[in-house]
Amino acid sequence: MTRHCHNCGWEWKVAGEPGRSERCLQCSSDLRVCLNCVSYDERAAHQCRDRRADPVADKDRGTFCEYFEFKKRVYQPSPKASAREAAAREQLKKLLG
Predict the structure, then answer these.
(1) pLDDT of the chain along its 97 residues, tens only?
(2) How many domains does the chain have?
(3) Which domain, by its residues, includes 50?
C-alpha cells in the first residue's frame, strides 16, 4: 500500500508528511488535504473520525490540521459520475429539451 494524490493517483514517495503548501507534481492539487487523511470518513460528523480536529470546509484544499496522517492505500480512481446520476441527467435533458 502506498500514498497517493486524491485527484490523479500520483504516488507520494517522500518520507514523512507533506507540508500544507506541497502540491502533486502531476496535477498540482494540494496533498495535505482531508481527502488524503486516514481520519477522513464521509459518514462521520464533519467527514472526520478524529474528534479533536477542527471542522474543515474545503476537504480538497490544503489544511493546517495537526492530526493529519497521509493515508496508505491501493489507489483506485473514483468514478466521476455514477450510472444513476447519468440516467438522471439524461432524463432532465429530455424534460427541459
Answers:
(1) 899 999 889 999 988 889 889 999 999 999 999 999 999 999 999 999 999 999 999 999 999 999 999 999 888 776 665 677 778 888 988 988 7
(2) 1
(3) 1-97
